[in-house]
TrEMBL record:
Record-given protein name: BRCT domain-containing protein
Keywords noted in UniProt: DNA damage, DNA repair, DNA replication, Ligase, Metal-binding, NAD, Zinc
Lineage: unclassified sequences, metagenomes, ecological metagenomes
MF (Gene Ontology): ligase activity; metal ion binding
Organism encoding this protein: marine metagenome
Domain BRCT, first and last residues per copy: 171-254
GO term, biological process aspect, one: DNA replication
Length: 254
């Protein structure tokens, strides 16, 4: 029979959290694959994600398979990851119900971890695309003592806690200000995350679901239930060419 460990400090859970934290969609720290994370945890070097930023590199250098170059590459990967934007950090923390879309929404709405920490449930619910379940989950996570201790250690390690600052003189960064653009289906010229990043970079939001507050739906091949929902609500539906024009001008067709 399969064995599950539900204890927060269970080594299997610790390894899973660290692997997720270092993954490409989160803090993107090269050199933290499954085997290395397993080694670091089993040897007592890591017991949570904050420990990534205080590794004992001298000890690692004494291990078989870790030459000077590999240790320096590991150090460089960890050091540069401190500058990842807030959305990446929030996703990396593995907060229940917080995927990349929600993490970016939280980052763009609150701009700094301090403001997110002090947010009420009502303030979290007010962010379009969250809803009561996600808002309650984030609020609860931010009030658990072991999570607050973890965040304090990340602060002390110099991890970036802010969303990127948008240049107010950059016209491209303002054309979608106040707009909520949902992306669905397969686009020829954009990956899903690329399309969302283009929207956010221009001041817009890109939640994961369609609502009456949605400005437009960008629908590629296989739009599915989001396309159906947009049609029901009368939300404008854009093809890829219209999306390109929207990114350039901020204007909806018609």
């Amino acid at each position: 029979a399969a064995t599950f460990c539900n204890n927060y400090a269970c080594p299997r859970q610790v390894r899973g959290r660290i692997e997720h934290f270092a993954s490409r969609g989160a803090m993107d720290i090269e050199g933290f694959g499954e085997q290395r994370v397993d080694l670091f945890v089993s040897e007592g070097l890591l017991d949570d994600v904050a420990g990534v930023f205080s590794l004992d590199y001298d000890r690692i250098a004494d291990w078989d398979g870790f030459g000077e170059t590999s240790v320096e590459n590991l150090r460089w990967a960890v050091d540069t990851s401190r500058e990842r934007p807030l959305g990446r950090l929030l996703f990396g923390l593995r907060i229940p119900h917080v995927g990349t879309t929600v993490a970016d929404l939280l980052a763009s709405s609150f701009r700094h971890l301090d403001r997110l920490e002090s947010a009420t449930v009502d303030e979290l619910e007010a962010v379009e695309g969250l809803g009561p379940i996600i808002a309650a989950s984030v609020h609860e996570w931010l009030r658990q003592s072991h999570n607050l201790n973890l965040l304090a250690r990340l602060r002390a390690a110099g991890v970036n806690l802010e969303a990127p600052i948008t240049d107010p003189d950059d016209q491209a960064a303002r054309v979608l200000d106040g707009m909520s653009i949902v992306v669905t289906g397969t686009l020829a010229g954009y990956g899903r995350e690329e399309a969302r990043a283009a929207i956010v970079a221009r001041g817009g939001r890109s939640p994961g679901s369609v609502s009456a507050k949605t400005t437009a739906l960008v629908s590629g091949e296989g739009g599915g239930s989001k396309l159906t929902r947009a049609e029901e609500l009368g939300v404008p539906v854009l093809d890829e060419a219209a999306f390109d024009r929207l990114l350039a001008s901020g204007e909806l067709p018609g």
